[in-house]
Amino acid sequence: MKTMLSGIKPTGRLTLGNYIGAIREFVKYQDEYEMFIFIANQHALTVPIEAAELRKNTKDLIALYLAAGLDPEKTTIFLQSDVPAHAQLGWIMTCLSGYGELQRMTQFKDKMAKQETGITAGLYTYPSLMAADILLYDPDYVPVGIDQKQHVELTRNLAERFNKRYSDTFKIPEPLVTKVGAKIYDLQNPTKKMSKSESSPKGCIELLDNPAQARNKIKSAITDSLGIIQYDPENQPGLANLITILSALTGESIESIVDRYQGKGYGELKKETGDVVFDFLTDLQKRYKEILDSKIVDKVLEEGAKKANAVANKKVAKVYRKVGLKI
Ligand code: ATP
Ligand code: LTN
Fold first, then answer.
1. What distance in Å separates the CA atoms of residue 185 and residue 47, rounded to the nearest whole number?
2. With 70 as the cut, is the pLDDT of residue 181 above it?
3. Each residue's pLDDT tens digit, 132-168
4. Catalytic residue at 111?
5. Structural domains present in the chain
6. Binding site membership of 152 for ligand 2 (Cβ less than 6 Å)
C-alpha cells in the first residue's frame, strides 16, 4: 500500500472550500492509502496567534475532520508538537537549506513584497520544517493546494541532497495538487477563492456557520443576468460555483444538474443548493458536537502520537547516526 501524508495548519475556522477541496479528498484517500494526517500546530506559530485561539482551532479542526469521516482506525491523526522528531529533523533540514533557496519561495516573497509587518524568522524557515514533516514518514504522495507545491519541490531537493551527501535515507515524495474543478469560489466575488482570511462573511461559508444563515448566503450569491443554466465558469462564474457546490455535496454529476435545470430559473437552483448546504451543515455539526462531548479527540491524538512517534523516531535515529550527531 502506498503512503500519503498531509498537514493542516490550525490557523482559522474551516470553510466549505476546505471541505470540498481538501477534507473530502482525504476521506476518500484513506481507503486506498496508508494515511498520515497531522495538525501543523508548530507552523501556526509563524504568525502571531493567541494561545487560547490556537487550542480552540486545533480541537475544532480535529473534531470536524472526524465528523467529516476521517477514520482514526484507517488514518493516523496526530499533533505535530506531540512528535518531537519534527523539530529535530526540522533543524537538520534548516541547516541543509540554502539561504537563497528559502528566499526564492514564492509564498515568502509575496509576504515580503506586500511588506506585511511582523514577518518572523519562522515564516522564512518554515519550508525546511515542512520538509522534515514530510520526510519523516517516507510518503509516496503529499496532497497539497497549489500554493504549497513549491514547498514539496524544495522537500524533494533536500531529500535528494541528503541522500547524496550521506546515503539513501529518504523516499522522494510526489506532490498531489488538488484538482482545479475542486476549487470553490467566494459567493460574492466568484472569481476569487472562498477563503476564511480574504472573503467577506457573506462570501464564505464556514463549517460551523449557523445552517440557516449559510442557506441565506447561497440565496444571495452573486450570479449573472444571462438567465441560462449552463456550466460556464468563465462567463458565469457565480452560477458555475453553485453547480459545483451542489454536485460536490450530492454526488450528482454537473451534466445531470445542468440537464435537470433546463428551462428553470436561478432561484430554484439556489433554493436546492441552499437546502443541501443546510442539511449538510446540520448533519456535520451534530456529529461535531457529539465528538467534542465524547472526549474522543484526546484518545485519537494519544493513539496517533504513539503510532507517529514510532515511525518518526526511527527515522531521526538513522539521520542522527548518519550526520554524526550520535557518537
Ligand atoms: P486562507 O483562506 O487563509 O487562504 P485556506 O482556506 O486556503 O486559507 P489552507 O490551510 O491554505 O486554507 O488550505 C487547506 C486546504 O484546503 C488546502 O488543501 C487548500 O487547497 C484547500 N482549500 C482552501 N480553500 C479552498 C477553496 N476555496 N476551494 C477548494 N479548496 C480549498
Ligand atoms: N504548509 C502547509 C501545511 C503543512 C503541510 C506540511 C502540508 C505543514 N507541513 C507537510 C503538507 C505536508 C500550509 O500552510 N497549508
1. 25
2. no
3. 999 999 999 999 888 899 999 999 999 999 999 999 9
4. yes
5. 3-177+295-323 (3.40.50.620), 211-289 (1.10.240.10)
6. no
